Amino acid sequence: MRNGVANLVSEVSGSPQYHLDKIRQLKARQHNKFEPKGDPSLQNSLEMARSLLKYNFGSNANNTKNSKEILVIFGALFTSDPGDIHKTIGNLVKDDIKVKVIGLSAQVAICQELVNRTNREEKNTSSKNYGVIMNESHFKELLMDCVTPLPLTEQEKEFEESNHGVPVIKMGFPTKIQPTGNSSIGNTDFTIEFPQLNASFPTAGSDDSSDVVQINHNMGATTTGVAVGYQCPQCKSKVCNLPTICPVCGLMLILSTHLARSYHHLVPLRPYKEVPISSTYESQFCFGCQLQFPKGVRTTSKSKGKLESMTSSRYRCMKCSKDFCINCDVFVHEVLHNCPGCENSK
Known about the structure:
By secondary structure, the chain is an alpha+beta fold. It is 29% helix and 14% strand. The chain has a three-stranded parallel beta sheet with strand order 1-2-3, sandwiched between helices. It has a three-stranded mixed beta sheet with strand order 4-13-12.
C-alpha cells in the first residue's frame, strides 16, 4: 500500500524462493518506490488480492478444490478508500475468501469487521484470526499460526458424508519449458524460440519483475530475465506460474513439491498415547533420542495417591508400538510430521 494505491511486488507463484528474491530486491534498493508511504487503502489491496485469487484459482461457484485466504499485515490506524469497503467485504464473503489480519499498532474496527464477516463469526467479537503484536516473537507466532490450513466447515463435512467420502481431485503435473536457441555454422545470427505463455495473473506486475528480452542483429541475444513456462499435460497449453488453473481446460496444475509440502496437513500424524504407570516397561530408552526412561514404580496401597500425580514419561505410537519421550513427541508432531518408528519398519 502506497499513497492509496495497491502495488504488486511479486506475482502469484508456488515457489517460496521467488518471493524471497523479490523482497530482497526491494530491500537492497536505496530508493524503494514500493515502500509504504502516505494514506493506505485497504479496499484497493483487498480488491487486487481478490482478483488474483479468482483469476488463478476460480470462484466459489466453479471450484471447491482449495481454500482462498488473504493475510493482511496492517500498521495504520485508518484506511482511505475510494469507494464503499463494505461492498468489497461482501464480495469477499460471496467468493468464500477468508481474511486474516495482523495489526502492528492497535486494533482497528474495520479490520475486526473484515475478519468477523469473512470467517463467518459473530459481529464485534474477538477472533483468533485478528491479533495485534506485542513484540517480535509474538509477531512470528501470529504469522506462523496463519500457515496452518483451514479446517473443514460443517457444510463441507456434510457434503463429504452425503457423498460417502472425499471427492477425487483431478490434478496435472506440467512439464517445464525453457527457450531454445539455434544458430547456423558460420553465421552470427541467433534465433531464439520462446514458448507462448498464457498469463496466469491478471496484471503484468511491476516493470522490474517483467522479463525483458532484447535481440540484436548479428550480435547474438542478450536476456535480462529467464522466460520459463509450464506445459499443461492435458491440453498442451502453456502457463507462467504454478500452482494455477489451466486457462484452457480448467485442470488444476501443481508441482510435486507443492503436494509434498501439504501432505502432512492432508494426512496428519495420529497423536501418541501416554503409557500408563507400571512397575515394569517394555522399553528402557526413547526410540527417538535414545535417552533412558525413568524406571517403573511399584504400586502399593499407600502410594495410590502419589501415582495419580505421576507419569510414565512414555508416549507410544499405536501403529508401530514404539515409545517416545515428551520432547520427541512434540518434535515429531510439530516439525517432522512422520513417525520414526513407522518409517524405520518400512
